[in-house]
Predict the 3D structure of the following.
Amino acid sequence: MKLRQWTTVGVVAVLTVAALNTVPATAGRPYDPTAQSLGALGLRHGLQVGTAVNMDALNDAGDPQYRALASSEFTSVTAENVMKWEVLEPTRGTYDWAAADQLIDFAKRNRQSVRGHVLVWHNQLPAWLTSGVADGSINKQELRELLRKHITTVANRYKGKIWQWDVVNEAVSDPWDTPSTLHYKGFWAENLGPGYIADAFRWARAADPKALLFYNDYNIEAFGSGNPADDKTQFVYEMTRGLRAQGVPIDGVGSQGHLGTQYGNFDTLQVTAALKKFSGLGVATAFTEVDVRSQMTAGVQAGNAEEINPRLQASAANFSVLMKACLAVRSCLSYTVWGFSDRHSWVPDWFDDPPEGLATIYDENYQPKRAYQELKSDLILAGPPYVQPRSTPRPRR
Ligand code: XIL
């Protein structure tokens, strides 16, 4: 009996090896994984490799490479801006779906999944909403009702078309804020109190029973002191644990992954440990907005290779750390970059004192940088036993 079992295993193994050796070869050419897209290589692990999409760039007829790479290199897309409240409802009561619908259509044509971004955030809110609250013409009760309606309207419109929703974004302060003790920050916490977070997940679930509902934040790549008063990762961990304990339908925690080469950052095992700890709560994880910026010194701007090289190398290493950690943890469902080319990155617009840049995986002329090659090799070199297929949670009711 034992022998027969082993024989069967042996035959299966031989057949499997034969299949692996023959299947990918095309027309007599050996299989060359480096010729595959990041997205295709990710699928070997069940991992979606995505990008944020800038709709102006996507629609620019003079910039065809943007559209070509956005459709060919990634299996998932996120709206960089066009699903934010200020874009969707610029005038109270009048939704403009045009740009968001266009992204959904683009994804469908390219068989890409969509990360919805974002239902609740304190930034990029319509002026009518923030000024109405400021001048008292919108009271707290009305504000809560407006939030419920917004979440319901947007999640309902895209029901069945969104794989993961960033339901609540960046709700937690940073140690450099005042007060420095970590707390729930921003417009929503200030006006409604932290209970808006659980409400938001419940409203999103009621509108879309199938999407995976995420909390999304930055500076939560690894644990620090373990004290939630100063360790943001710990704060978010305890928040997630609390929400799960209350039965709130939160399915995932997204770590944005906005890094800078001037900082200490983390190693692969530290990031892996953090993803594993979150998975222990029963939630999925994802890297949702990865980019690794550098300071643009006068030397960098003048093209000095001695200043540029260490930046490109450090950027590549940090992209790779997050990818390896993601691969190592089965709950890590997707790895999304926040724009793929330095031609369209948000970094130079947002970090200008001192100026920063060089944050993405392709340069301004769409040439792949070291970061791109490192992500590719991470995806190629990974596999069992250490890297296993993804494990997807069922959306929580
Ligand atoms: C950024 C966009 O990239 C910019 O184009 C926009 O002007 C501001 O917002 N965290 C988030 C994203 O969750 O929505 C932000 O996107 C970047 C930081």
